[in-house]
């Protein structure tokens, strides 16, 4: 899979390059600012972009705004945002009408490199990888404490749904049966007022709720 990395800190950018290369990705371009990221994507047509949020020229949410533009111009290119914080308004615009091929992970919450690599592959293949904190912050823009009705177990299941895990993967992580996972999913969707038949991807169902 072809990857373009956008990160203005050289040491972190080099670390990402090495990690991705060693795990089988083809890093075809690197960018230290948002305009160069857009140029590299046009030139190399990668399968996925891994980008920070804050970078030159404005050192605000330039990287995230570039990601939104990439999704507009090349919806077939996956975009994984890797940042220290959640830029709520721009993050909501990035997700747009679909989470297909979109990821948003927080740097200080990436505990397992294998999970990170799995997230990059999933986004490159059209899946999603959203940190639970991102989901919670975006929900908070539309409804006061929207997750207050969920039990602790339901919150755990929702967090794993947001990571793009299957029922089997959730069951394996929580050491429960797939049937128990399915029951929790149905309760989550009901409590969040999301139609149970609203789509085949649970992350998209949560995002559909956000857009209401």
Automatic annotation (TrEMBL):
Residues covered by the Response regulatory domain: 2-122
Keywords: DNA-binding, Phosphoprotein, Transcription, Transcription regulation
GO BP: phosphorelay signal transduction system; regulation of DNA-templated transcription
SUPFAM superfamilies cross-referenced by the UniProt entry: CheY-like, Sigma3 and sigma4 domains of RNA polymerase sigma factors
Short name of any one Pfam family annotated for the protein: Response_reg
Presence of keyword Hydrolase: no
Residue numbers bearing the 4-aspartylphosphate modification: 52
Record-annotated HTH luxR-type domain positions: 143-212
SMART domains: HTH_LUXR (SM00421), REC (SM00448)
Molecular function via GO: DNA binding
PANTHER family: TRANSCRIPTIONAL REGULATORY PROTEIN NARL-RELATED, TWO-COMPONENT RESPONSE REGULATOR
Name of the protein in its database record: Response regulator transcription factor
